[in-house]
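User: Hi! I'm a student and our assignment asks us to look at how structure tokens line up with a sequence. Could you show me two examples?

Assistant: Happy to help. In each example below, the sequence comes first and the structure tokens follow. Example one:
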Amino acid sequence: MTDGRLSRAKTRIGDRLEGLRWWVALRVGGAPRCAECGDEAAWIAEAEAEPRCFKHIPSEGMDAIRDVEPEDCFTDWDEASADA
């Protein structure tokens, strides 16, 4: 295999594994719910360690949030908030 074909194959396999990772996380763990309203969360508020939806961005703005990752689907956010 040439370097280009090998690189494309690695990229394709990596993309499929990432897709599988999200599929399992969402099917098994479920999407995190916004701590404010209960809608599906798109971000995690870093300071509060809580999931947030599009309507409830923290007062610190976009710098205080991160995207939801597959492992967030398995986090018990009620317990995580109590620990903070």
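Example two works the same way, sequence first and then tokens:
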Amino acid sequence: MSLDDSFYLRNELNQTVVFTATPRLDESGAPESEAFLPHATYAREALRAILDAQQDPFANLLTELWLYVYQKPWAVPDTVDKLIVDIADKIEYRELFVYLD
């Protein structure tokens, strides 16, 4: 995953949610507050809510996010639940950061 790019989705409140590999810092150099807690269970629920808000029954946007994170097109999970678990794990392990834009 490139360190200088981000992936954008909309949540259930139509806010832009930014997924990025590097933590954001404010003007003072302190980390910005994230959109949700970096805990796998909470991340899974938030990702499900984002999926519902996208009205994307085939989870194409989550598949794009998974590809952004993992960059292994030959290994894309075959179910939405697996996509969500994989992405949530990256958030929990602090390899993926989520912010509201």
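Here is something you could point out in your write-up. The chain has a mean pLDDT of 87.
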